[in-house]
Amino acid sequence: MFSPGPVQEYLQHFFSHHPEAGERQKRSAGDDWTTGLCDKLKKMQHFFGLPPSGELTQETLAVMRKPRCGLSDVEHFEGTTRWKKKTLSYRIVRSNLPFSAAKVYKVFKSAWQLWSNVIPVRFHKRNRKEADIIISFHQTDHKDGTPFDGKGGILAHAFFPGPGIGGDVHFDAEEDWSINSTGFSLFAVAAHEFGHALGLAHSSDLGAVMYPAYNFSPNYELRLSLSDVKHIQRLYGICPDFDPPPRTPDKCHSDLSFDAVTELQQEVLYFKDRFMWRKHPQFDEIGMTMISSLWSDSVPASLDAVYQNVEKNLMVFFKGHQYWVVRGHDLEKGFPRNISDFGFPSRVKSVDAALHFRDKRYTVFFTGQECWKYDEQHRAMHNSPSLLERQWPGVEAPIDAAVFYDGFVHFFKGNLHFQFDNNSKSLVSVSTVNEVLECNKILTKR
Ligand SMILES: [Zn+2]
Ligand SMILES: [Zn+2]
């Protein structure tokens, strides 16, 4: 558990809470939460997309414990601090390197490239002392007023453009840096810190490279998000013919659709790309998180279908011709496996959606116009497929996702949500996906 000390430190460091002179004497420790610190906490919760309750919830503490960048989340300098030239030099200090100098150079070169792909700025490595940007690895105190903290916690920090230390990037040498999949990806952290070295602040866009907490997943190729690109181009201009960046899914975007939807205990999870929204019956706010926040790197992004087998306490994920079975947070041995295990004929190459009925112990798989009934108890597919339109009249095939909760079957196709009553075999309502995520409600509430 966090005691108020580290929480106060966190807020002070990242949300610049500076107790006023005499504040400590005036108030007892218990009063702190009703004063400035509480406002900072709300600010922090708002930044990370948590319900801004001002209370130290488990979720809030979990975000605070995440490894992250050492810079503050409330800097406002964008548009003022930038390099004035179009060619920048960098130098890599050769002490404390986690790998060979050649490997480290290769990683940094590709991290710079992420940025130079979208802005008309070029980066050149220099071996001599003079360079605009000095990149180095340090342990604990390294004489810049912001000591590193050993393994975990703060991973790196950087200085905004300027002379001297300006633009410099420091990595915590004590981290378990990696090039592949274990430990912290040097490439992902470098891409983020280089953004600061170019003048970017933190972004609360969960999909952005400039998001302050480490959320890189080796299952997903690191790319700048639309917000990263917009911000850097505002500073340096546009590089012609850059690839359009991915937009982080927005629950209020009218074109929103889902990849998959499932129950998870009392919650309903809505999947999109490498993100998901979690809807809990007891909470108003529907927060977006990374899929990897629940299952680390066990399951891929951009899923086709997901269902929870309550009886066996398993989650089953589908993508392409493969499926993954996860118990708790861990992938079962031998997975992913081929979906032919379920008894699909070889012509079925993927599934669109999976609909599990816990009471009846069966799952329906959707493939185009067809649906297949799978007996979970006997692990057998029922005879031949039937037509979706015959089983669920009014629902348009092919669908994106399906789930059973609150006594209804819910189908998702594009930006539409079909609610179906299985007892009367009738369509109850058709609404937009935004309404399911209570986007409208939240917009009018505040
Ligand atoms: Zn940062
Ligand atoms: Zn430093």
From TrEMBL:
Transmembrane stretches in the record are none
Query: Which keywords belong to this entry?
Result: Calcium, Collagen degradation, Disulfide bond, Extracellular matrix, Glycoprotein, Hydrolase, Metal-binding, Metalloprotease, Protease, Repeat, Secreted, Signal, Zinc, Zymogen
Q: Where is this motif: Cysteine switch?
A: 67-74
For this UniProt entry, the molecular function terms from Gene Ontology, in alphabetical order, are: metalloendopeptidase activity; zinc ion binding
Active site, UniProt feature: E193
List, for all copies, the residue spans of the domain called Peptidase metallopeptidase. 79-238
Q: Which residues bind Ca(2+) 1?
A: E175
Binding of Ca(2+) 3 occurs at: D149, G150, D172, E175
Q: Which cofactors does the annotated protein need, by name?
A: Ca(2+); Zn(2+)
Q: Which residues form the signal peptide?
A: none
The entry's Ca(2+) 2-binding residues are D132, G166, D168
Task: Name one cellular component (GO) term.
Answer: extracellular matrix
Lineage of the organism: Eukaryota, Metazoa, Chordata, Craniata, Vertebrata
Which amino acids does the record list as binding Ca(2+) 4?
A: D259, D304, D400
Q: Where does Ca(2+) 5 bind?
A: A354
The family this protein is said to belong to: Belongs to the peptidase M10A family.
- Cystine connections: C252-C439
| Location of this chain's protein in the cell | Secreted, Extracellular space, Extracellular matrix
Q: Which PROSITE patterns match?
A: HEMOPEXIN, HEMOPEXIN_2
Predominant place of localization? secreted
> What note does UniProt attach to the cofactor annotation?
Can bind about 5 Ca(2+) ions per subunit. Binds 2 Zn(2+) ions per subunit.
Q: Which organism is it from?
A: Cynoglossus semilaevis (Tongue sole)
A Pfam family name for this chain? Peptidase_M10
Binding-site residues, Zn(2+) 2 = C69, H192, H196, H202, M210
Name of the protein described by the UniProt record: Collagenase 3
Q: Cite the PANTHER family for this sequence.
A: COLLAGENASE 3, MATRIX METALLOPROTEINASE
As recorded in UniProt, coiled-coil segments are none
